[in-house]
Amino acid sequence: MTARLSRRGFLGMLGGAAALAALPACGPGATAGSTGEVLTSAVPLPERFRVPLPVPPVARPVGVDGTGAQVYRVTQRVAEAEILPGMRTPVLGYDGIFPGPTFDTRRGQPLVVRHRNELPVPTVVHLHGGHTPAEHDGWPLDLVLPVGRTADRAAHHGMLGDVVVGEREHRYPNDQRAATLWYHDHRMDFTGPAVYRGLAGFHIVRDEVEDALPLPRGERELPLMICDRAFAADGSFAYPGLDQGMRSLPGVEDDWMEGVLGDVVLVNGAPWPVHEVDAARYRLRLLNSSNARRYRLVLTVPGGPDLPWVQIGSDAGLLAAPLEHQVIDIAPGERFDVLVDFSVLPVGTEVTMVNALDPGSAGRVMRFRVVRPAPDDSRVPARLAEVEPLVPPAGEPHRTFRFNRGDVGDHRGWTINGTSFDPDTSLADIRLGETEVWRFVTDVHHPVHVHLDPFQVLRRGTGGPGDFDAGWKDTVDVRPAEVVDVAVRFTDHAGRFLVHCHNLEHEDMAMMATIRTL
Ligand code: C2O
Ligand code: CU
Ligand code: CU
C-alpha cells in the first residue's frame, strides 16, 4: 500500500480533527463549466470515425443459489486491448475487458456477483444507482485484496474496513425501477486511476412498466459509455504519476486534483467510433463514465438542423413523459436514456455526436451512419411511467452540504462541509422513509452523487429544476457557485452510505462524506 492511503486515510481516521481552511469560491476551470486539466497523448491520435462501435458482451449467470438469486462470477484481471488501431493497451478489466460485461437484469430478480480479484491492486466494487444493503454497496474500505495476499496483510488493513483476500460476493436485491446503472471501482483514494484503467461496466434493470412501452429493442437499444483518456507512447493509458506499469496504481497527485482530462474520447472503449444504423428509431443509454469531463452532446447533421434527443429516462428510471432536447449536458456519473430517430434522414447520412464544450479533439464523440431503410414499429409514448413526486416537508432545507476546495494541514484537497472523508463520522443521520430537503452548494463545478436511493431536483438557485434535472436522479450536475435543492428519501436499508463528488479526482482527494440511514 502506498503512503497515499495512509495520508488521507489516516487523516480521515483522526475524525477530521485537523483544522480546515476553505478557500474562496473560485478556481481554474470555473468558466469552462468543470474543473480539470488535459493530459496530452504521446501517440498520434487515431483517425476519427474509423473504429466500429463495440457493444460490451452480456454477462451470463452460472447458476441459481438456494435463495433463488442468479449467480454470476466476474474475474478482475489485467489484459491487453487494442484500443488504438495497431497498439496494445493494458487494462484493468472486469473479466479482463473494458467496458466490463453488461448485466442485463430484471426488477425483483436478485443476483449475486462473485468478484474475484486477480489484479495486482486491491479493489472495491460499487453498483452505482443500486438500491443495495450497505454491506454489499462497495464501502471504500471494504477491500478485496488480490488473490494470494496473506492474511496478515488483511489483518493490517482490517482496521479500516471489512477486508478480504481474493473474492467477495455482492448480493443485489435488484428491486428497483428499470434504469441504466453502472458498476465501477470505488476504493478509497484510488477510484480515479482504477476506473481510468478500465474498471467500469453497465448494469441494466428492466421491468414490466418498460416492457409495455413500444420502445426500440434488440440491436436498436445501445448502451454508450462515454469517457476521455490519454495514451502514453507505448499505447498504455496515461495517468499522472502512473509510471510503474500495471503493478501498482498511484493515487491522485496534488497537481491533478482538479481532475484528469484526456484528449481521446472513447465510446464503449473505442476511440471516436462509428456505428451503422437503420433508418429507424434507436434507444441510447448514455453514460458519462469520465473521471472529470463534462460534455454538451449534440447530434449534428451535414447541411441540416441538429437531430433532437428525446429523453425518456434519467439516472434512476423512466420520466413521466418524454422531454425533447437540442443538447444534453452530462456530468461524470450521470445517465440519460434517450431516443433518436434516424428515419427522418436519407440513407447515407452521417450523424456526428459532438461535444460542444470542447474546442479541441474532445469536441467529437462518435458517428452514426444511416445505411439502410428498415421497418420500425417503435413509437415515442406520450406517457412513460408513474413518477411519484417526493413531497418535501414544509420549512427550510434540512441539511446543507458545501462542496469546497480545502486544505488539510499542508495537503491540498477537497472538502464537504469543511471536512475530508472520514469513514467513521457521519455527516448526516437520516430516518428511513422520511423525505428530506438537501441543499448542495459549490465553489467550482461538482457533480454530486448520493448512494442508496435516488432524489428529485426541486430547484436551482431561485429557479425551478434545470433542463437536465427531470425524473429520478442519483447524480446532479452542480455548476460553479450554484445552490441546488433536492428532495431525498431513503428506504429499506439501514447502514453506512456515501455522498460524494463524482469528479473522481475530487472524490479521491477526499470530497466524500459518510451518511447513515437509521
Ligand atoms: Cu459512481 Cu459512489 O459512485
Ligand atoms: Cu454510487
Ligand atoms: Cu467535485
UniProtKB/TrEMBL annotation:
Its EC number is 1.16.3.4. Keywords: Metal-binding, Oxidoreductase, Signal. It is an enzyme of class 1 (oxidoreductase). Residues 1-21 form the signal peptide. Gene3D superfamilies: Cupredoxins - blue copper proteins. It comes from the Bacteria. Residues 81-140, 410-516 form the Plastocyanin-like domain. It catalyses: 4 Cu(+) + O2 + 4 H(+) = 4 Cu(2+) + 2 H2O. Belongs to the multicopper oxidase family. Monomer. This is Multicopper oxidase CueO. It comes from Pseudonocardia zijingensis.
